[in-house]
Give the backbone structure.
Amino acid sequence: MSQKPIRKAVFPVAGLGTRFLPATKAIPKEMLPIIDRPLIQYAVDEAREAGIEQLIFVTGRGKTAIVEHFDMAFELETTMKDREKTLEVLEPTRIQPGNLVTVRQQVPLGLGHAIWCARAIVGDEPFAVFLPDELMIGQPGGKGGCMKQMVEAYEQVGGNVISVLELPEDEVSNYGVIAPGESRGTLTEVRGLVEKPKRQDAPSNLIISGRYILQPEVMRVLDRQEKGAGGEIQLTDAMAQMIGKQPFHAVTFDGRRFDCGSKTGFVEATLALALEREDMADEVRAMARRLLGC
Ligand code: UTP
C-alpha cells in the first residue's frame, strides 16, 4: 500500500521543565546535553534519519537557544576556520533554510494544545511528533532509530502509529496507556488510549513513549480544546477519538528509551551513552568502578 510520506515533524518544546529547576530557569530543558549533544539534537537526528525534511518547533518564552542551536554561527565558524579547526562537529546543527519553522505556544496549556499550535504549518498531511526529553536510542547495528522503525510500519499499515514500551504496572499512572488489540511482530493494534490512568484502571502496562505519526484530522479534534487529566489539553484524548475512524497501531521500539525529563533518567542516559563511546568508555568505566568501590 502506498501512503502519503511523512515529511514534517512537530517538536513541542514549550514546556516549563520544572523538574530541572533551577537549571532550566534560563536554559530550555531541551538544550541540556547528554555528554556533548543537547537533547533536541538527538531528536532532530532521529527525524532526519527517518527521512523527515521540515522541522516545526513549538516554542515559548525563553526557548530561543533551541533555534540558535540550529542557526549558522558565522563568527564561531570563521574563528574555527582561522584556527584550522574542523567544522565537522557542527554538521548535525545545519538545517536547510526553510526547513526549520517555529510557532509559539503562548500559554502552556498541555501537549495537545502545543501540537494544535502547529496546525497551519502541518496543513493537510500526516506528520510526526517528537518529545525530545524522551531519548530513543536504536540498537548498535540494529534496525535504526525509533521514528525510522515507525515510518517503516506506517508504510505498511498507514493511519496513526505511536511508539509504546512495557513498564512495570505500578509505574504506568504517569503516562498515556494503550488498550491493546491484536499483535503481529512488533506491531499492535490500538483499541483504546487513556492518559494517566489510576493503576487499577490502566488497560495494560504498555505506555506511549514520546513518538507519534498522526493524521491531520487530529487537529480538528484538538480544535475543540477539551481539557483532560491535570486540566491540560491532552494529545492522548484527541488521539483516542481517532480510534475506529482510522487505522491505529503501536510499534514496540527495538532499542532503548531514557526518560530524560526525570533526573535519574537523565543520569542513566549520560552514563549509558558514555559507556558506549569509544573516546570515553574505558575512562568512564574505571571512574564508575572507583565511585562504586568495586
Ligand atoms: P512534560 O510533561 O515533560 O512537561 O512535557 P515539561 O514542562 O517539559 O517538564 P516538567 O514536567 O515541568 O519538568 C512533555 C513535552 O510536552 C511539551 C514539553 O516541552 C515536553 O516536550 N509541552 C508540554 C509543551 O510544549 N507545551 C505544554 O503546554 C506542555
Observations:
- The CA atoms of residues 74 and 282 lie 36 Å apart.
